[in-house]
User: Fold this.
Amino acid sequence: MKARIFSFSGLLMSISVIIVFWVTLIVTEPFLLYYNQQIGFSVGFEYFKGFLSYPGGVSNYLADFISQFFKFNTIGSLLIVTISAIQGLMAVFLVNKITGKNRFSFLVFALILVTGFVLLSDYRYPYYATVRLLMVFFFVLAFWFFKNKFPKYTYYIWPVLAVLLFYIASGAASLVFGVSSALLIAGTAKDKKAWFALPVLVVISILIPLISYKFVFPTTLKNLFRLTEIKPPEMLAYSVFYLLFAYYALLPVLLLAANFFRKFSIGGQLEPTKLSEKKKAKITLVKRIPFAEIAQFLLIGVLGYFLFWKSFDPFKKKLVYLDYYAQQENWDEILKVAETVQVYDFRVNYHVVRAYANLGILPDKLFNYPQLLGSNGIFLDTSSRNGSFTMPISDLYFDLGFMSESLRWAFEAQTLLPNSPRILKRIIEIYVINEKYDLAAKFLNVLEKNLLYRDWAKKYRDFVTNPETTNKDQKIAEKRKFTPRKEAVNLDPLSNLKLLVDTNHNNRLAYDYLLTVCILDGYPNEFLNYVSHYSYYGIKTLPKSWEEMLSFLIVKNKSVPAFVTNETVSAECINRLKAFNAEMKKYGNNMEQAKIATRKDFENSYWYYLLFLNPKVTNAFNNKSLIK
Amino acid sequence: MKKLVYLLSVVFLVASCRGDMGNFTEVDRLPVIFPDYTGIVIPPNIAPLNFKINEPGEAFEARIYVDKENPVTVRSSSASIIIDQAKWRKMLDAGKGKSIYTDVFVKQKEGGWQKFKTIENRISEEKIDSHLAYRLINTGYVLWTNLGIYQRNLENFDEKPILENKSIEYGCLNCHSFANNDPNKFMLHIRAIHGGTLISKDGKLEKVNTKTNYTLNAGAYPNWHPDGKHIAYSVNDIGQYFCSGEIRIEVADMSSDLIVYDVEKNTVSTSAKVSTPNRENLPVWSPDGKYIYYLSAPPVRDLDDRINDKYDLLRIEYNTADNSWGKIDTVLIADSIGKSISFPKVTPNGKFLMFCTSNNGYFTIHHPQTDLNLLDLQTGKFWKMDINSDQTDSYHCFSSGGHWFVFTSKRLDGLFSRPFFSYLDENGNATKPFVLPQEDPEFYNSFIKNYNIPELIKGEVPFTPVEIRDKVLEDAIPAKIDPGVDTLYMKQHLQKKESSDSPHV
Assistant:
C-alpha cells in the first residue's frame, strides 16, 4: 500500500516536472535570459580566480557555468527543471527524515519546483540565487549524513559545514542552512532540549558573516546577507521579489511544518511501528484514497498558475525579444513583435526605427510609430539612462558604419559585462574592420575561452591570420568605406550623421537617419541641404516623411527650393497637406479638438507629429505619463 | 605486458626529455621572444623574466646564466619559458653589476636543434622599490563596475588588492599617490559613492573632503610634499569628448586651479597666483619641497580652446611653514617646443625633470603621439627620450633610489596601458624599457584591463582592504580653508568661472 501511494506521488511529481519543463520551454524560454544577461563563461583558472575572493563566488561561478547553456532553449529548460527537481527531492528526503513516510511528498516537492521555476520568469533573475540555495540543500543533506554517521561529532561538523557553505554560497545561504539544520536536529531528536539548537545555530549563522565582514572579506555587509548582490549594471539589476524570499524560506518552513506534523499527527513518535493499532488503521484507511495527493496537485496547479501569472510580464518578454531579434538582425520579427505592443515605449521606438532603417523603409514608415521623444527615441546615447543600453547604442553606430562611436559604446558595455560574448564579438569585428589585427587577436584570445563561440571565433581568427581575406567580406569592406577617418569630436547624433554622410555619400543608412533627425528635431536648413541630394540615391519622388516635411517647408517659406521638380513631391502628398490644412482651419486655435479630428487620417504624418506629438509641444521629457 | 609497455614508454619519454641536444646549428640573429627582454638593464630584485619563444619548433630550451658554468636551464615542449624563482633570485644576487645571458635553443619539427644569438642583458647594482601600486580599469570611459587599486610585489608575482570597489558599493576609485614612495603614507580618492579622499597619516587612516566653499572642487591630481605632511592638488572642472580618428577620447578642463592640503591641520590653502582665469594643473613638488612645478593653459573661450590649447610648465615657491605662496617662474613655454607639456616629475636627486609632451591638452594617455622628455634643471636643456615608442608613453614615477622609473606605455598594442621600467643614469640616459614581468609570459595577450597610474613603493601598504573599506564607509571630514587665503578674491574668482561656463565648451 505504501508503495502504491509512493508511486502515485512519484507519478504526480513526474507530471509536474513535465508541465514545468514544457512551460519553461515554451513560455519562459531560457535563451532569452541568456541573451538578456549576456552570460559569458570562460574556461581557465584566471576567470575562476576572480570568484574565489568573496563569499558566494563559488556558487556564482557554478551558476555562470550552468546558465551559459540557457543559450540552448531545450537544454536550458532541462537544466532549470532538473535543478529545481533535485532541490525538491532533497526537501522530500529531509522532511521524511522528520515525519517518516507521509502523504505530502508531492506538495513538498512541487512547492520548491514551482517556486524555482517561476523566479526565472524575470529575465534579470541572477541564477546564482538558485545555485546558492541548491548548495544549502546539499549541505543540509550532508549534515544529516554526518550527523547519523558520526553522531558524537554533530556539533563539530556543523560549524565546519556552516563556514564552508558561507564561503561557497554567502550569508543568506548560511542562515537558511543554520535554521534548516537546527530544525532537522530538533525534528529527529527524542529530547525536546534539541530545540535549543535553533536559536544557537541561527545566531552562529548570523555571526559567521558578521565576523568575516569584520576581519576577513572586504565586501559590504549588505551583500553578505542579501539574496542577490547589489551590483551595476542597471539593465541586469534584479530587484528582489517576495517570491525569492519565499524560495529561500521554503526549506526551513517545510522542516518546521514537518516538526509540527510529527508532533500533532503522530504524537511526536518517530517510528510508525510504535503507533497504536487504532491509529494505524485510521491512517491506512485514509491512505487508501489518493484524495490528498490529488488535492495537492490541484493546489499546486492553482498556486503555480497564480504565481506565474503574477510574476511573468509578457511586455518585458517582448522587450527582451526585441533586443534579441536586433542582435540577430531579424528586422521583420522586430516589427511583428512591436505590433503586439499597444503602449508607447522608447525601447520599442528605438528598435522599430532601427528595423525600418535596415529594411530601407524608414523614410516611408517613420511616423507609423509615434515619435514621442524626437531624436531621443532613436539615439539612446543622449539619454541619462544610456548605461543600460550600451550595446544597442553600439549596434546602431555599427549599422551606420561609425566605428569609433560603436567601439566606444562597446567598451562601455564591456566595462559592465567583461566576458559578454556579444560585446567581445563586436569589439573583434570593429578591430578587424579598423585593420587592427593584433587587438582583434587579443580579444579573440578572450572569446576563445568561451566554449560556445569557438566557431565564430575561428572565422575571425582566420581573418586575423590572413588579413587579405577580409576584403572579400562584404560587411567588413562596406564598413571600412563608411567609417570616418577625420579627426573630429563626436558631439551629438546630428553632427555624427553629417560626418558619416560627408565621409561617404553611399552610406544610405546614415543619410536616412540624418534626414530623420532633421525631421524629428526640426533642422530645416540641414534638411533642405541634405534632401536636395536625393536623386543621388536613385529617388524620383521623395518618400513619405521627407515629402511631408518638404511640402510643409515650401508652404511655410513660400518658396520652392531649386532642386524640387514636378516629381519630387507626390500629388497625393500635396492633396493630403491641403486636406490637413483644411481640417485644422475648422478648429482655429482649439488644438485639442484639432488633434482629435485629424488623428484618424493624419496620425502617421509629419504634420501631425509637428503639431501634436513633437516633444517640444508635448514637453514629453517632463511629462512621464506620456512615456512608459 | 601492458604494464611493461607503459613502463618502457615512460622511461623513453623521460630519457627523451632529459636527453642532451647534441649538435645544433647556430642562427645568426636574436630569437623573437615575448615580452621583448633583450638588450635591457634589470634591477637585481626583479621577478623572473618569463618569456615565450616566438620561433617555430617542437621543443624549446633556454639557458640563463651570469656564469656560463652554472646556467639555469628551462626545457619545455611549449614555447613558454618559466624560470624557477629561487634559482633566478640566487643568480641575480650573485650577478649585480654584471651581464646576464640567455641562450635560446629551438628544436625544429624535422631536424635538429637551433641556437640563436645570445641575449645579453645587464643587472644593475641598484634595486628598484619592491612594490608597484596601480589601478586596474577596463577601457570604458564613463561607466564602471569592478575596479580596484592593487599592489604587485616586483620581486615575485604576488598581486594583492589595496582596495577593490566591490568593497565600497562600487564607488569609483582613482588617483592613488604615495609620499616619497612610502607605503605608509598614501592617499586615494573615492568618487560617486562614499566620496572623499582617504589619507594615511601616522599609521592611521582618515577620510577627508577637500572641497571648500572657496575652491573650485575637491582635490583631483595629487602630489605629496617630501615632508609627508602636505599634498598639492589641482582642482578641476573636467569633461570628456569622444572623437573619431586616431584619438578616441579627449579629456579637457573647463577650468582648474591649485590648492595645497595640509594633512596635519586639515586645511586647504590656495592663492590668487594659482587660482587665475588660466588653467593651472598637475602640481608636483621639487625634491627639496620649496617649489611646486605645475602646468598652465590659457582660459577657455570655446570647445576648440578647451581641447586643443597647450600647457606651459611653471613653478611657484611655496613655504610649508606658513602655507604661503611665493614667486612664479616660467620653466618651459609650450609654444617654444610646439607641444603641450604634462605630468612633470622631478628626479629624486633634483637634477632632471621628466615630463610628457603631446600635441594638445594634458591628459596624455589617450594621445598616441605622447612622449617622455627630460629637462636638465641645471642647464635648461631638454630632449625627447630614446625610450619612446610610436604609441603612448606617458605617466611615470621614480623609484626611491632615483634611477629606476616606471612609466605607462601602450606600445604593445596601441590600446592597453602597461607598466614599463627603465634605468636613468647620471647623465640622463635611459635604458631600453621592459614590461612588468608576469608568471605567464602570454599574460598580456589576453589581459584586457589597463594599468593606470603605476606608483613605485618601498613595501606593502600596511593596511588591509578591510581596514581601508571601514574607513571609506565613514563620512568624510570637511577640510577648512587656511586663514591665509584671500577668501574674497576666491569668491569672486569662482563667480567669474561660473558665469563663463557655457554648454558649448
Notes: Confidence is low (pLDDT under 50) at residues 267-272 of chain A. Chain A touches chain B through 49 residues (CB under 8 Å). The domain at 317-482 of chain A is CATH 1.25.40.10 (Serine Threonine Protein Phosphatase 5, Tetratricopeptide repeat). Strands of chain A lie at 488-489.
